[in-house]
Amino acid sequence: MATRIPMKHKETGVLKDGYYGFSWTTLIFGFFPALFRGDFITFIGGFVISVIIAVMTLGIGAFFISLVWAFMYNKYYTRKLLERGYVFADTEANNAMASSAIGVIAA
Fold first, then answer.
1. 73-86 average pLDDT score
2. Transmembrane stretches, by residue range (predicted)?
Protein backbone atom coordinates (compact mmCIF):
# COMPACT_ATOMS: atom_id res chain seq x y z
CA MET A 1 0.00 0.00 0.00
CA ALA A 2 1.24 3.45 -0.88
CA THR A 3 2.33 5.91 1.76
CA ARG A 4 1.88 9.64 1.17
CA ILE A 5 4.70 12.05 1.97
CA PRO A 6 4.21 15.82 1.67
CA MET A 7 6.80 17.57 -0.48
CA LYS A 8 7.62 21.25 -0.93
CA HIS A 9 9.54 22.93 -3.74
CA LYS A 10 12.66 24.62 -2.37
CA GLU A 11 12.32 27.81 -4.38
CA THR A 12 8.63 28.31 -5.12
CA GLY A 13 7.09 26.75 -2.00
CA VAL A 14 4.60 24.74 -4.07
CA LEU A 15 3.29 21.72 -2.16
CA LYS A 16 2.76 18.31 -3.75
CA ASP A 17 2.30 14.81 -2.42
CA GLY A 18 4.95 12.21 -3.09
CA TYR A 19 4.28 8.52 -2.60
CA TYR A 20 6.20 5.34 -1.98
CA GLY A 21 5.12 1.73 -1.83
CA PHE A 22 2.77 -0.37 -3.94
CA SER A 23 0.27 1.60 -6.06
CA TRP A 24 -3.16 0.00 -6.16
CA THR A 25 -4.47 2.81 -8.36
CA THR A 26 -1.78 2.08 -10.93
CA LEU A 27 -2.58 -1.63 -10.82
CA ILE A 28 -6.29 -0.97 -11.38
CA PHE A 29 -6.15 2.03 -13.73
CA GLY A 30 -2.84 1.45 -15.53
CA PHE A 31 -1.06 4.65 -16.50
CA PHE A 32 -3.97 7.01 -15.74
CA PRO A 33 -2.70 7.95 -12.23
CA ALA A 34 0.33 9.46 -14.00
CA LEU A 35 -2.03 11.59 -16.08
CA PHE A 36 -3.96 12.74 -12.99
CA ARG A 37 -0.71 13.71 -11.23
CA GLY A 38 0.37 15.82 -14.21
CA ASP A 39 3.09 13.37 -15.27
CA PHE A 40 2.14 13.60 -18.95
CA ILE A 41 5.28 12.16 -20.55
CA THR A 42 5.12 9.04 -18.39
CA PHE A 43 1.42 8.64 -19.17
CA ILE A 44 1.87 8.97 -22.93
CA GLY A 45 4.93 6.71 -23.10
CA GLY A 46 3.53 4.06 -20.80
CA PHE A 47 0.11 4.08 -22.41
CA VAL A 48 1.50 3.69 -25.93
CA ILE A 49 3.87 0.88 -24.90
CA SER A 50 1.07 -0.84 -22.97
CA VAL A 51 -1.29 -0.69 -25.95
CA ILE A 52 1.36 -2.06 -28.31
CA ILE A 53 2.19 -4.94 -25.94
CA ALA A 54 -1.54 -5.60 -25.36
CA VAL A 55 -2.18 -5.88 -29.09
CA MET A 56 0.78 -8.21 -29.55
CA THR A 57 -0.18 -10.49 -26.63
CA LEU A 58 -3.99 -10.29 -26.77
CA GLY A 59 -4.12 -8.26 -23.55
CA ILE A 60 -2.10 -10.57 -21.34
CA GLY A 61 1.08 -8.51 -21.60
CA ALA A 62 -0.73 -5.32 -20.55
CA PHE A 63 -1.73 -6.98 -17.28
CA PHE A 64 1.88 -7.88 -16.51
CA ILE A 65 3.04 -4.38 -17.40
CA SER A 66 0.44 -2.94 -14.99
CA LEU A 67 1.50 -5.34 -12.26
CA VAL A 68 5.19 -4.48 -12.56
CA TRP A 69 4.49 -0.76 -12.93
CA ALA A 70 2.33 -0.79 -9.77
CA PHE A 71 5.43 -1.76 -7.79
CA MET A 72 7.60 0.90 -9.47
CA TYR A 73 5.51 4.00 -10.19
CA ASN A 74 5.25 5.71 -6.78
CA LYS A 75 9.00 5.52 -6.25
CA TYR A 76 9.61 6.75 -9.80
CA TYR A 77 7.19 9.69 -9.41
CA THR A 78 8.64 10.79 -6.06
CA ARG A 79 12.20 10.61 -7.40
CA LYS A 80 11.17 12.82 -10.32
CA LEU A 81 9.77 15.36 -7.83
CA LEU A 82 13.07 15.29 -5.95
CA GLU A 83 14.96 15.89 -9.21
CA ARG A 84 12.74 18.91 -9.92
CA GLY A 85 13.69 20.56 -6.63
CA TYR A 86 11.10 19.26 -4.18
CA VAL A 87 12.12 18.18 -0.68
CA PHE A 88 10.31 16.10 1.91
CA ALA A 89 8.19 18.34 4.15
CA ASP A 90 7.04 16.08 6.96
CA THR A 91 8.49 15.10 10.34
CA GLU A 92 12.12 13.99 10.55
CA ALA A 93 11.05 10.38 11.15
CA ASN A 94 8.67 10.31 8.18
CA ASN A 95 11.23 12.04 5.95
CA ALA A 96 13.85 9.45 6.93
CA MET A 97 11.42 6.59 6.28
CA ALA A 98 10.53 7.97 2.83
CA SER A 99 14.20 8.53 1.98
CA SER A 100 15.02 4.99 2.95
CA ALA A 101 12.11 3.51 0.99
CA ILE A 102 12.95 5.50 -2.13
CA GLY A 103 16.68 4.98 -1.79
CA VAL A 104 17.82 8.59 -1.60
CA ILE A 105 19.67 10.63 1.00
CA ALA A 106 17.39 13.17 2.71
CA ALA A 107 18.58 16.74 2.29
1. 96
2. 20-36, 42-71
